[in-house]
Structures are given as structure tokens and as C-alpha cells.
Amino acid sequence: xxxxxxxxxxxxxxxxxxxxxxxxxxxxxxxxxxxxxxxxxxxxxxxxxxxxxxxxxxxxxxxxxxxxxxxxxxxxxxxxxxxxxxxxxxxxxxxxxxxxxxxxxxxxxxxxxxxxxxxxxxxxxxxxxxxxxxxxxxxxxxxxxxxxxxxxxxxxxxxxxxxxxxxxxxxxxxxxxxxxxxxxxxxxxxxxxxx
Length: 195
Fold this sequence. Notes:
195 residues, mainly alpha, Rna Polymerase Sigma Factor, Chain: A, Arc Repressor Mutant, subunit A, 2 domains, 68% helix, globular
């Protein structure tokens, strides 16, 4: 069986049995999502690269020590590690993580998209730029929840635990984020529809 067909749990087992290519497959499978979430928090390519490497060193170390449990999904566990490492970085530097507007990085560039014509590509790019601009304009706490929920695919329970707030607070922040996004769309008369 090809490594690409194996589930994450099976790849981890193969890696622990000595198959380094199994870990490469695991990394390839999830690197875009993990890197994107790190970049969205730190807003610096070289810092994101450093934290990304540190995340996978920690993952390898945890796997080798047999401390990983298979209860949750691998990618959610890896996302928690990356978030915690971003927060640790900001704590060490006495700054709270802020999710500021993106300049050189486009989250949608890492998403897999099937073949499309030039017009569809332009419309998709414009829509993504509008959405990214709206998210960037949100207050930091709301922006954080939107990123963790929609780009990191985390549940509200996981977000609450990760950000050390109640589940109701996490839900409230998402609610206010959506209200604010709708308000900005109305005020600026932004169309997110394909023409």
C-alpha cells in the first residue's frame, strides 16, 4: 500500500517502526495548514519558518518518546502545538500575538484548487482579497477565533481551551466577528458574489 493512502495514525505507526518516509508524507499532508496558521499569527516569513521547524521538532520528539495519544486527530494536535509555540514566542518577547493585515502571504495560495480558467481565477483572487481584508480589520480576539475556526479547522471547545477562555466567550467572539464582517460588507458595499 502506498503511503499516501494511509491514515495519519497509520503513518505515525510506520514512522515509529523506522519508516522516515511515513513522517515525510505526514508533513507533506499537513504542512500548508500548519504553516498558514503560524504565519497568520506572527506575520513574518522567517519567524514563521523558525516556529514551523520548532513545531515539527517537538512533534518528532513527542512521537519518539511515545507521548502522543491517538484520541484526537493528528492535525488538530499539531495545530495546538503551533499555536502554543506562537504564544510562547510572544510571551518571551513581552508582546501579545496580534493578527495584523497580511502583506506578502496569501492564505488562499496554499489551498489546493482544481484547474480553472483565467476569469474564474481572477474572481476567486479578488473575493479572497476582500475576505482577507475583512478578517484583518477585525479586533484581535475576534480575528484569532476566525483564524482558528476556519483556517485551522478547530472546534469551539478546542479554541476555548487553546486561548484559555470559556466556550461561550469563544462563541461570542465568533458571533461578533460575523456581525462586524456583515456590517463592514454593508457599509463598504462590498460584493462577495461572483459576477
